[in-house]
Predict the structure.
Amino acid sequence: MSSMSQAAGALQISYTVSFPEAQAHYADIEMDIKGLAQNKLDLKLPVWTPGSYLVREFSKNVESFTAQSGGKAVSVVKTRKNTWEVNTQGLSSVKVKYRFYAFEISVRTAFIDVTHAFLSTSGMFFYPEGGLNLPSTIKIIPYKGWDKVSTSLAKVGTNDFTVTAPNYDILYDSPIEVGNQDIFGFKAAGVDYEVAMYGGGNYDKERLKKDMAKIIEVETAIYGENPNKRYVFIVHNYLKGGGGLEHLSSTVLGAARDGYATEAGYEGFLGLVAHEHFHLWNVKRLRPIALGPFDYENENYTTNLWIAEGFTAYYDNLSVRRTNLFPVENYLKALAADFNIVDNTPGTKVQPLSQASFDAWIKSYRPDENTINTSISYYNKGSVVGMLMDLEIINDTKGAKSLDDVMRYMYNEYYKVKKRGYTDAEFKAGVEKFAGKNLDDFYAKYINGVDDIDYNKYLGYAGYKVVDEYEGLNAPDLGLRTTTVAGKLKVAAVLRGTSAWVDGINVNDELVSVDGVPATDPKTLIDGKQVGDKIQVVVMRDGRQLTLPVTLLKVTLKKYHIESVTEPTASQMTVRKKWLKI
Ligand SMILES: [Zn+2]
């Protein structure tokens, strides 16, 4: 502990947030600091928000940063991209004011307009250097007509508009929604749940209450306890919306306003609910050692996002499956979709899962045209690996244990008993404990290596098999992804090893014609062609027309579905029942 942090230990901090120019997307923030006894005070803004592994430079949205004390201006020097140094010599208190521009719609960034304010706290509220352990209060002065606040932070007294955080880790893990959101509540697993719906939508509240409660009960049963007293779902409904961000006692979800009424839309929303809610254990409490306490100023590297995110992605659909709200076939389809993504991404043969996690900051969160060739998603492949481990444990123990037991054991052992995150080796040991075998070979192949996944070995334990509908298909494939820009077909990606890759069609090429036929529909570009045919592809590249001779290669894509074996054995049915809870 430095002398600076000892000094910070005595500070009393409160914020006042108002929205005099909500129409222009600004919050005006006043930070009151009392109890000063130091010559200078460094105020810092996090550069990233936990759960979203990208340095986002939130301080780019800060302007008009000033300080005063007793009505007199206090000098301030900006010393880093996210640090302002306040000269506090001879002062016992200081009032800092700044304006914050909030116009990025996402679950991890603040957004303000006249209809609401979504305060993504980690990106908006400064902390004093060395003072992350300090409590603070936030007083919100709502824009005209706003009458509700939704957050997991505790109210001060009975005033909804003043909330308090015991330290900055909790403040930064507690987003705040202010406006006229539609709020409803229910109880599940002994916890009070609040749902705050912004933006309207065709949701059925009574149905959501029942179905969300079922998911919460299923997930709580995996861990054996639900550590919150109160939990808040903040839901942002837009014309098109998606994604979510997990927090300790709340989550923020993006949803399509009119997506609740179709089976696929509704099942997708429940899957998102299940995903973010599962995180309250997996990553928010049971966590890789690098993910907490956080360094808010730098990247926090971990090779374990395939557990934190991948296993959560595995358990989201599995939890919805276990509610019995949808048929088993829907779950098997979702699994096969993951298999397809993994095997149809050339990067799966390049980047091991542990590296996909480590490089999230520069690869997964900064995708480009070549991402598909160099990277694999730790969500999709992590989810598949979770399934493999689950089936291995269930099979090895003849249905007595499953991955659930690993998660519950690790939660107890590391979050509750040791009160710290797990290392790579500790997680592996946790799985081995229940599988009853050494997993060196499994890790070498699927976590730290790029081996093809033997789906049928594992699905076979449960009497299922994966079928590739393209098996034996002797059809040609160009190997392109395209987009249509101003009515023209442009190349968005060229897949490694395909015809387009080998013969040099480039990203950003505008496709003009194939063998003299105008290129308009990506689906019909090579209609009637055979494997081995030599075709002439005319493209516009940087304003010049080029003719590229291309030899058509055989399709390398997979198209999987999962089906039951004809007569599953008794032991296969034991595994199946334990796995899918059917
Ligand atoms: Zn997640």
